[in-house]
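INFO batch 0412 | record 1 of 1 | parsing
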Amino acid sequence: MKEAMRRLRNYGIFVSMLAVALLGSYQYLSGYTTVSNNVNGKEMPICSVETKEKKVALTFESAWGDEDIARILEILKKQEVRATFFLTGEWVEKYPEGVKAIRDAGHDIGNHSESHRSMGSLNEEEQKEEIMSVHRKVEELTGVRMDLFRLPYDNYDDAVIRNLQSCGYYPIQWSVDTGDTE
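INFO prediction complete | emitting tokens
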């Protein structure tokens, strides 16, 4: 009888400890958020984030020249505005000082693919190379580990979105296009 009582008490202690561990895990893990933008079964990039605050996310794509970067950074600093600059790997190679200036000014740096190719026309391995090649370049140059990806030409499908996510990226698109592309 004593043995059965001891086992029952030990079992009770074990169950109590397990409950405390599960509760603690829930409280710890519930602080993390996952993002899914699935609409009617189709994977979608994030185009906006609901908030009660009046905010706008300002982004720039840097895939061609750098002649405007210094002026843009100057204006953003004067206006106390932070932005996200989506960079291609080719731009990072050509303008490493521009990349560092963006980082040093406190702006976010995002991935815009290695060579600005249409992601939907590439196979999975080619997509991963377009994603991770520029990722490595930016991290090596600045120490920044990017996690935002702007899709060139707004070209994507479910496989592209899942591939981005498997590489640790959130796919980001605009909700208002300025129409300033050539």
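INFO post-check: The domain at 38-172 is CATH 3.20.20.370 (TIM Barrel).
INFO record closed
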